[in-house]
Amino acid sequence: MGHRSTDVVNTLAEALELAEQVNHPAVQIMFDFNNTGDETEPFDVLLRKYYEQIHHVHVQEQGGKHLGTGNAVKDYVKAFQVLKDLRYDEWVSLEVFDFSPGGKKIAEESMSVLREIEGTLV
Q1: For labelling, which of 23, 55, 67, 98 has a CA lying 20 to 30 Å from the CA of 106?
Q2: Domain spanning 12-120 has what CATH number?
Q3: How high is the pLDDT of residue 68?
């Protein structure tokens, strides 16, 4: 998470360092598209760099909104291509904070975006 959200762990490098210090299989790192504010590298580069250690991916638009309310189709394609190329087979979950549009609308719009992204992958 970026420094605006927390002062504990702000980058994947810090998360990995903490996980390695704990050295327990229950402590792993995740990639969260919305919480990469302090990272200096693009999503796809980060995913390649930390692929072996990433065991969960959170998907949402930048700013914390559900998929379909921003630029995820354009911004996330390279990242999902990396996940496909490297045969990522662990968890990917939709992260939602604002449920005011309603669960059905959020699910439909988010699934539409994921399908659109999937359709661009080679």
Answers
A1: 55
A2: 3.20.20.150
A3: 87
